[in-house]
Write a structure and sequence with these properties.
Helix content: under 10%
Radius of gyration: 17 Å
Shape: globular
Strand order of the largest sheet: 1-20-17-22-15-13-14
Structural class: mainly beta
Largest sheet: 7 strands, mixed
Number of helices: 1
Strand content: over 45%
Order of helices and strands: EEEEEEEEEEEEHEEEEEEEEEE
Length: about 240
Amino acid sequence: MPATVDIRRAADRAVSRTPWLNSRHSFSFGDHYEPGNTHHGVLLVSNDDIVAPGGGFDTHPHRDMEIVTWVLEGSLAHRDSAGHAGVIYPGLAQRMSAGSGITHSEKNASATEPVRFVQMWVQPDMAGIEPSYQQQAVGDDELDGRLTTVASGIPGRDAAISIHNASAALHVARLQPGDAVTLPAARYLHLFVARGRVGFDQAELGEGDALRLTDADGAHVTARESTELLVWEMHAALGD
C-alpha cells in the first residue's frame, strides 16, 4: 500500500496552561478530547511541556504505561514511589514503566530557568508488570547528523533504554542545515520537530509540527536550520 501522510501543525495542538505550565498536546489529553486524535500506532501521548522555575507536577499516579521523557532545555527532577530519583537533562533518555501502579513527581530542578521537555506515552505489551525505571546518557556525537535509537522494545535493536513494547522504537537526531536523514520503514511513523525546521517532500515542517506516516518506506527529511527531531517507529497499532 502507498504511504499515507498526515501533517499536524503546531498551532493546531490543544494547550493546557497554569501559572507554572505551558503544555502543548499532539493527541487528546486530559480535558482536551478529540475522537479522531487519540493515538497514532501505539503512541498515545506526546506532550511538549515548559515548566517555570520552581514549578512542577506534584506526586500523582500512573499504571500500565511506558513513559519516555526527553529534555530539550533545562533540567527536570524525578522522584517516584519505587525509590528512584534523579535529574534529567538534555541528552539523557529516561523511561518509567508504570506497570501495576506507581506514583511520581516531576519538578523543574532550577529555581531560575525554565525546563522544556517532550513526554511520550506508549502502551506496554503486557499489563500489570512490575514498575521500573531506567535512564541513560546519549552522547552528542551519537545524535549529531543522524537518527540514533534512544528507546526500543524491538527484539535485537540496540538502544540507550528499553521499553516494554516489542513493536516500537524512538529515534532522535540533531541536524544542521543541509543534513538529511532517511526515516525508518514502518507501518506507523510519528515525526515531531522539537526545534528547527525540515523539508519533507513538498512540505516544510517547523518547530512543534508533526508528521504522521502510515506504511512508510524510507522517506527523507532535510534540515533547513539547526533542528532536533523525535521519531517513533511503530510496527503495530493499539488493539493489534
